[in-house]
Amino acid sequence: MNLKQLSHMLALSQTTVSRALNGYPEVNEETRRRVIDAAKRHGYRPNPSARRLATGKTGMIGYVLPTGAAVDIDPHFVEFLSGLGDYARSHELDLVLSPADADDQETTYRRIVANRQVDAVYISSPRPADRRVALVSTLGIPFIVHGRSEGLDFDYPFTDIDNEGAFHEAARLLVQLGHRRLALINGDGRETFAIHRERGVRRALAASGLALGEGDVCSLAMTEENGYRAARRLLEQSDAPTAIACSSLIMALGVVRAVRDLGLTIPGDLSLIAHDDVFPWLKPENFSVPLSTTRSSIRLAGARIAERLAARISGLEEGARGEVWPVDLVIRGSVAGAPP
Amino acid sequence: MNLKQLSHMLALSQTTVSRALNGYPEVNEETRRRVIDAAKRHGYRPNPSARRLATGKTGMIGYVLPTGAAVDIDPHFVEFLSGLGDYARSHELDLVLSPADADDQETTYRRIVANRQVDAVYISSPRPADRRVALVSTLGIPFIVHGRSEGLDFDYPFTDIDNEGAFHEAARLLVQLGHRRLALINGDGRETFAIHRERGVRRALAASGLALGEGDVCSLAMTEENGYRAARRLLEQSDAPTAIACSSLIMALGVVRAVRDLGLTIPGDLSLIAHDDVFPWLKPENFSVPLSTTRSSIRLAGARIAERLAARISGLEEGARGEVWPVDLVIRGSVAGAPP
DNA sequence: AGAGTCTTCCAAAGCGCTTTGGTCTTTGCA
DNA sequence: TGCAAAGACCAAAGCGCTTTGGAAGACTCT
Predict the structure, then answer these.
(1) Per residue in B97-120, is it b (16+ CB within 10 Å) or e — as a string?
(2) Closest-approach residue (CA) in chain B for A251
(3) Domain HTH lacI-type, which positions (chains A, B) (predicted)?
(4) Regarding the domain delimited by B163-296, which CATH topology (the fold level of the hierarchy) does it fall under?
């Protein structure tokens, strides 16, 4: 059942039927009712391929997915997707993942924009002076950045959490508890979130005349193994840190294992705070010693970004407004006063 | 730059240019070269929206993503996606995720097929007599099932791993080591993979005149917490199992925690084997006691399924061939002879 | 009554491709 | 030499929608 057939049975032109269905004003309400009714009765659904050829609108939002044999997709992605999908569903939006060579995403961005394959895109895991942000901005497609870039000479719309504030608070708490040597087990140091977290820690330490030592900040892919290795290296020093801030729950698993392997205890020998993106399958309160965390649901962020993308597509949102969400600091058993 | 312009500058008809570019035979090789050359020089790329309206081909594969506030996307999905994306990239395929109400995926499947939004779909986490498989099959869109359904009265193409065989081997090993009471901490019991794994364990036990007791199989969402709870319940019995087979590494984390909380040890008091889907961020060899596993890379499965989908789209593959991959049993420190 | 303004509808022209159904040369063969 | 077959190309008709540029009729106003 296509528009032609439908308009034929209604003895109306395609123009009128199309307008009736799309809510244009120049059609009699009585006629509109008739049309809508007939459309529903015959299960008419406009062919999206035809519509997108005519209008350029796709009803899809895009994400360029970096791939490659050596590239691992962040498990956080799933949670983000849950939120995004949840919102997208209720607004009849689909998400198209365009896999790209991790080292050449530009080609893919250009393609999906030139081909008008999606109405909007989002960018995740941005880095300082992120080229994708600059690119997408000049290409002129609606977009939202999940996270922030830095050092770009223009504004852009983003939704981020207050990573610096979160880690500042975490570090400040540790300092208040008497810790004088902290370490930071961070994610990939090229990403803005990691930079912000380090900045937060440094700022908190500086406020008390302290600092992060040379080897006291580790920037690594967020795996359990890297958490273990980093912790092990830190704790085997003669002058080991008495507190660690850690960028992910998964790395924290490794830290806990290292602590145990070394015959130490939490929080007796080491205080630990990690960032929690809120996974359903791994919860900080279930660590052998309940883990203190800075918490922010990445799922909520996904939903929010879908919402903003939808708003931008329909023209309800414009401009370069960035929003920064506060992060909760949740104290549990893994922090205590510094050992004497 | 569109076809019209390109053909105009070449002083050829759109027909010929289109045919030249699409490799049809009725065009002079010399002409074809000219056309291809000019297309490249001017960066001509056929508009996919126009092409899909004309041909119905989209260059996209689809996945219906169950969503909802209470629905969690499996973290395995990310790894699967890595493999899928890696293959898709090299074949210029995109993946469209159509979020659907977890309780009504049928509407979405019907929509994406009726609208010709994708060329093929895959289905994951199938259950016995899975309605999606039946639906997609009657709808007539190319598809592959990742995993297997059961009790369907027709054949369908799938790629699965030998879950039954894997858990049969695992259980057999444990029995050989003298274990007489086993337990199974399984995933969601409504899914086929979980059924197969249970079957595998039961078969191995039966071969030695043993059986799984009433409460010795737990079917739960695969979270750390559920692993902990299940293990705790099992191990607190007076007649506790001396070996556990576990369906996921994440649950195994919980099992290990329970064992420790109870003051027991692995493998002294409990032998443990878990299934490993091969995550980059959590490895069985890094468990405090290296974990024996049944191992099968879900990432490879993703790539394979993309490959088969592409083959089906282009007509290279047809029929209902199912393939079952063997699973490696990797012995590490977490298994030992049964305690006396 | 005539001019202007709405209201309501329509025919037809896109959107940019593929594909059908030719036409006009060349070539092959008896 | 004549005729069929093959080769190389084209015009035009889709694909199914949206949107432009009217047009016809009803209404208002002077």
Answers:
(1) bbbbbeeebbebbebbbebbbbbb
(2) B281
(3) 1-55
(4) Rossmann fold (3.40.50)
**Interchain contact A68–B (C-beta under 8 A):** yes
pLDDT in tens, B222-262: 999 999 999 999 999 999 999 999 999 999 999 999 999 99
Cβ-nearest to A94 among B97, B101, B257: B97
CATH code matching the domain that covers A60-161+300-325, chosen among 1.10.1740.10, 3.40.50.2300, 3.90.1530.30, 3.40.50.1450: 3.40.50.2300
Token code pair at residue B340: 């006396």
Tell me whether domains A3-46 and A163-296 share a fold.
no
Which residues neighbour B44 within 8 Å (Cβ) at sequence distance 6 or greater? B1, B2, B3, B6, B38
Give residues with Cβ within 8 angstroms of B316, minimum separation 6.
none
pLDDT tens for B310-332 read 999 999 999 999 999 999 999 99
Closest-CA residue of chain B to A260: B288
**Which DSSP state fits A291?**
P
d(CA B122, CA A290): 40
Chain D: positions less than 7 Å from a protein CB are 7-22
What are the residue boundaries of the structural domains of chain B, listed by start? 3-46, 60-161+300-325, 163-296
C-alpha span between A41 and B14 (Å, rounded): 40
Q: What is the mean pLDDT of chain B?
A: 96
**Domain at B3-46, CATH from 3.40.50.300, 3.20.20.70, 3.40.640.10, 1.10.260.40:** 1.10.260.40
H helix or E strand, kind and range, residue A337: none
